[in-house]
User: Fold these one by one.
Assistant:
Number 1:
Amino acid sequence: MSQPETAGTRRPISADTTGPTNVRMPDSVSAGALNHAILRVARLHRMLAGQLLRKVGLHPGQELVMMQLWDHGPQRQTDLVRLLGSDAATMTRTIQRLENAGFVRRHPSPTDKRVTIVEPTAASNALRNDVEQIWMDLETSAAEGMTPARLAEAVVVLGRIEESLARATSQEA
Amino acid sequence: MSQPETAGTRRPISADTTGPTNVRMPDSVSAGALNHAILRVARLHRMLAGQLLRKVGLHPGQELVMMQLWDHGPQRQTDLVRLLGSDAATMTRTIQRLENAGFVRRHPSPTDKRVTIVEPTAASNALRNDVEQIWMDLETSAAEGMTPARLAEAVVVLGRIEESLARATSQEA
DNA sequence: AGTCTTTACCTGTTCAGGCAACTACACCAG
DNA sequence: CTGGTGTAGTTGCCTGAACAGGTAAAGACT
């Protein structure tokens, strides 16, 4: 913000290699308007989530695990990884912290000695309403001042970006 | 397990024709369509950035510091914090790592003994084109398949979300 | 049966990011 | 000149997140 932003919304990739002028477009920042917009929204969203979750003693990321467990009951750890799109190592430690905090319990599967079943504790139910309220507050904050049409538009637009990024990510692998 | 579940909060978030993954969503998930969309986009964006930046030896977040320095020259550390919206503690350690990697140099300000001036090294210039190319690739990946109109729409929509979140964040403080 | 591969989970390491507490310095009011 | 206040930077501590490596179990295949 408040940058010169000379050419306004110019195309991000202008093949300037044609001319000898080599002005070089020094502003590598304005060239990534979408990148920066995504980064800023992501940071604000995560920061606000962190502020709200702090009040109930959770850290960002943990609430997703808890909501998954509350909604769908005991699950294998690897399913949590798959459903939340997380990393197995991250999930291991997140679950360990949630276990230490008394919000989940773990026990080995009787049919497969590799798998660990994770289930929410009764004590965690006291959090459920708070977390769901936080989730709704977060949604409301992100959409504040939007008409329903604009909210729907936002979801559509984010879906398009997600689809593009998912395609690029799979190609990268 | 199914509590009344805030029956009255059925805001018009239906817009079910949007999600790329059209699996059925329980209440606490569909109630946060925008939340989940933001989280997924943020994760994919960061992951893709990490994959691309890894090739040049940078970690996500460091490229923002370097681009800021390349574009605007030596700056005070606190200005980097303010401009990038980061945390002072994080900036300290990020700069230290960039210094160890030989990409930036630090020296105290002659006029104010508190401040540290950070400047990019000549060696870092070898990275500049690569990083800017990565930044453009990332932008292209995020916008792949979009018409210019849809790209502009995406930036506007993200701007609206950012504005809403910023408002909520400041109120929360 | 024996070997190979895959799966599930854990640990070590590194980094970003945030809060809290602290030091050093600058500035201002008296 | 002194004391209070604000600023700049650092470190400690905790967490999420990703990668690499390792272990144990389950399957698959000879």
Number 2:
Amino acid sequence: MADRNATTVMGRGESLLFLTDDQLRRGIEAMFFAYRGFTADPDRILQDYGYGRAHHRAIHFINRTPGTTVNNLLSILGVTKQSLNRVLRTLVEDDLVESRVGTRDKRERHLFLTPKGAALERALSEAQRNRMRDAYRAAGPEAVAGFRTVLEQMMNQEMRRHYLDDGDGPR
Amino acid sequence: MADRNATTVMGRGESLLFLTDDQLRRGIEAMFFAYRGFTADPDRILQDYGYGRAHHRAIHFINRTPGTTVNNLLSILGVTKQSLNRVLRTLVEDDLVESRVGTRDKRERHLFLTPKGAALERALSEAQRNRMRDAYRAAGPEAVAGFRTVLEQMMNQEMRRHYLDDGDGPR
DNA sequence: TTGGAAAGTCAACAAGGCTGACATAAACTG
DNA sequence: CAGTTTATGTCAGCCTTGTTGACTTTCCAA
């Protein structure tokens, strides 16, 4: 047990972390296995619709920021427009997403969930929130704070912007 | 700020977490964006070899448990044997992995990294460990413990077994 | 000794990434 | 106003990595 955990040593007023390769490897595998659990429930639901994770991601971020443009979604998702377009096309065809021509700039398309799309979004996010909530409850409040802190540090700088870019921050 | 974080209330000797849907949604997005960061560095390296994440995963777990069988790897990775086989075939062809016929049971193949494979493994895991270490350092020791705890709770039961199944536990 | 189960391989297909080329419309710029 | 840039969409084709189905080899138990 003592051999497994990171050791904290106080020196010169700062706490230093000594991390062995094995401890880091465990963190890496934790990410791998946890991400599988994280996506397992939505994946199951999506299968009934013939959709995949790509559809889930689009639906999630359209729900988070209704009226977002294709270009904005592109930079959040980090895929090519061809790839996103394929997904969006099926979602529009199936009446889950509505694509409205921009009023100010008519080149832009603003994306919204239809009632049908919102219903699927609720089913997906409810499943995912339930798992997240259960994990949080079992881990306790301090663990939750640490979890979020480490994840934020693990993101690329650019992604951190998108992650924060719907709150009360500047810009 | 006060509105953003989970609130802890002490009642009947237990701490209760009140989690809003927005707080949970942030956790969900944190996982999404962080996983992208988590895989970004290895992905870059793999590109030079013409490999993908599937190759990385195989190499990682063969390195962790040298001599593991295809079947064992299968249950860890959670893909079909046909899918894994394709990846393993290219790795064997490229002399990164050696597949030895089992001595006790000749149906089994035991997998090992060649020196070449071990070199790639080191490059990949070093990149990933560096990111993990930086995140840990920036987040601090308490955050790291919480991070691991929440991730462990988020795994499926079956995966938790694989995650722990190389340590000092029973069986 | 024979039939079933288990491990692994081959073939073919689908989802969802990618690049490249090109079209259209709208906005912007000199 | 002409030319360029921007936002979006589309077609074609490729790659990785998942899938299912069919098959071989090997092992084991009745």
